[in-house]
Amino acid sequence: MDNAGGPWELPWAMRLAFVVFVVSLAVALVTRGARAEPSRAELEATGNGTGDVAAEALFTLAQMDERDFDFARALARYEASYAKSPSSRYAQRATNRISQLKAHAEGDFAPLARLERVRRDPALANDPAAIDALARDADAFPPGLVRVEARMLVGEAWVGRMNRHADGIAVLRQIVDDPKSDPLTARQAARLLVDTMAQDGDIDRAANAARELRTKLDPAFVTSIERRVRRRTLHYAAIGDLIALAAFVAAALAMAKRRARLPAVGAALRSSAPLAIGFAAYVAIAGGLLASSYEAGNAAPFLYFGGAVVPIFFAARAWGAAGAQTPLARLARAAVCGSAMIAAAFIVLERIDPVYLEGFGL
Questions:
Q1: Which of 168, 191, 347, 353 has the fewest Cβ atoms nearer than 10 Å?
Q2: What is the DSSP string of 94-136?
Q3: How many CA atoms lie within 13 A of 4 on its CB side?
């Protein structure tokens, strides 16, 4: 009678046991993960021992010291950790921190502590007053990596989020010229300096700086600055070309007016209007469709150039009807109008995206 319900009760018992096991395992894992970090006193007591356990305790204490900006004590404990067990799993990490701290030890670590208080705190790093104070303090730091890194933090803030480009450029120049600058920071400062000048539109100054700092800059970046100089020169040349076309057309129309030939010019324009509009539409539509057929294609350059063709076409036709008809005159008009087309194409591409000009070395 006692076992009558056994076959029905056994599965429920097993289920209950399984649930208890799972809950116990979860509690054990959570408890293990939430185990409190040993206190300093406990770690110091462990660090007085020997072997890997002592090395780990000293390494952990050194990390705590770094969090507290006590870099001198951190260095001593990293060295002690390595000395306890040069083959422990913390030995390489301790060696790396020893090297880093020794490289930033100028001024008995006071400059490093000053820098880290700003660098680790987003509120201070974005506070103009705190950045200004760090810039002033950095000028009094002993020569070394800490002064370089402090100035880099200031320079990036000024040319970036604080929009003080002139001040930022001056600080970046100090970094580039500092013999204590490490190569990586010097290259970063040089690029940011030249790039900021270029963004401000001071292309000549940026180009001069790029040539001067060529050894610290990526060759492709120097080439991009040189392209911007050429592009700026061609921009002015293109504008001048279009102005020259307008001046020649205006002079020809003035002569035609004196000779009472303006009605003939008007008739020539009316008769050529369908051809001009048709040609512009062909350039815009056919070119746009061809560009759009490619995955990364963009029809905008063709559409805008199609619109730019129309006034140039009418200007050329008016000039041809009003001007001299000698072979030399016709050749000169063809040359000026052809260059005006090229100038218009250059300006269209420049306005849409200068990347299109890079294929032409511009």
A1: 353
A2: HHHHHHHHHHT-GGGGHHHHHHHHHHT-HHHHT-HHHHHHHHH
A3: 2
User: Which region among 10-19, 59-68, 118-127, 315-324 has the lowest average model confidence (pLDDT)?
Assistant: 10-19
Task: Determine which helix (DSSP H) or strand (DSSP E) holds 288, and give its type and residue range.
Answer: helix 262-292
Task: Provide the token pair at 94.
Answer: 């301790």
Residue type, 134: L
- In this structure, which CATH number among 1.20.120, 1.25.40, 3.30.1890, 1.10.12 belongs to the domain 109-217? 1.25.40
In this predicted model, what pLDDT tens digit does every residue of 90-105 receive, in sequence order? 999 999 999 999 999 9
Contact 141, 113 (CB under 8 A): no
- CB 158 within 8 Å of CB 166: no
CA angle 108, 113, 115 (to 5 degrees): 120
Residue boundaries of the structural domains of the chain:
40-103, 109-217, 225-360
156 token code pair: 């990036």
Reading phi first (left if > 0) and then psi (alpha if -120 to 50, else beta), residue 37 is in: beta
Question: What pLDDT score does 34 carry?
Answer: 43
- What pTM does this model have? 0.69
Q: How far apart are CA 290 and CA 49, in angstroms?
A: 77
Give 195-233 pLDDT, tens digit per residue: 999 988 888 899 999 999 999 999 888 988 888 888 888
